[in-house]
Amino acid sequence: EKRIFSKAGNYTQQVLEPYSIRRALPNYSFSHVRGGKGGEGKRAYQRIIDGKSEYRNNDLFKAVSYAFQCNVDIEPLRVLIGDNKNGDVFTERDWEATVR
Fold this sequence. Notes:
The protein is mainly alpha-helical. It has a domain at 50-99. The chain has helices spanning 2-6, 11-16, 21-24, 40-50, 56-70, 92-99; strands spanning 84-85, 88-89. Strands 1-2 form a two-stranded antiparallel sheet. Strand 1 and strand 2 form a beta hairpin. Helix 4 (40-50) crosses helix 5 (56-70) and helix 5 crosses helix 6 (92-99). It starts with a helix and ends with a helix. This is DNA primase.
């Protein structure tokens, strides 16, 4: 009874509690992460605008995430539509699928 009522949760939760992420990372402070807006998303946005994007889907995803977070217009990113890299044409459907 002592084991059952000494901890919160059902049997599975009690048994797995010693292996939980809370025990593995008791101090999950992110103070070491630099604050600010943009970062990789801002750089990806600029690469797309400049036409220097090597990995279109990856850059578009990062750029759109940055744009939504920082209230930046995503319309300039439509420049990717019709882009042809080695015979692979980036269509409006591809753009919509990545943005949505």
